[in-house]
Amino acid sequence: MWLTATARKWCWPRSSLRGNGPRYWWHAGVSTAFVWTARYAIIGCLIAAFVPMDAGTFLFIFARNITYKVILLLAITPGGAGIAEGAFPTFFGKFIGTATMTSFMVLLYRVVTYYLYLALGMVFLPRWVARVFIKRPSVHTKVS
């Protein structure tokens, strides 16, 4: 019984995506490319906010960020904690300059890309769980 209900829940999204035309998939692909590009450009944008750079340097930082993210995917800690902070100066320290500024950039990067989402999750997740999963008794009014 439970397995059947779960299978139905998983198949519903698949069936709701069938029949969408090329325009839908074009918009989905473009928005996905934009989001992932923004995700990989964030370190370059943070560094460029404090250190002048040209387009070639920005693209080089972008490429290094892709490698950096692969290292974080292999990390065994949640969110790559510790490994992200340790690897950041190795990958991006030469573009930033001083060790103090590099430490500041690591903190700023982690706040913007990781800890902010944890804080937002602490605020919004309990509300969503209460709304979606907690059954409230329905109030039936009797019409005479």
Automatic annotation (TrEMBL):
Recorded superkingdom: Bacteria
Presence of the UniProt keyword Transmembrane in the record: yes
Listed transmembrane segments: 40-63, 70-92, 112-130
Keywords: Membrane, Transmembrane, Transmembrane helix
Name by which UniProt lists this protein: Flippase-like domain-containing protein
Organism encoding this protein: Hymenobacter humi
Biological classification of the source: Bacteria, Pseudomonadati, Bacteroidota, Cytophagia, Cytophagales
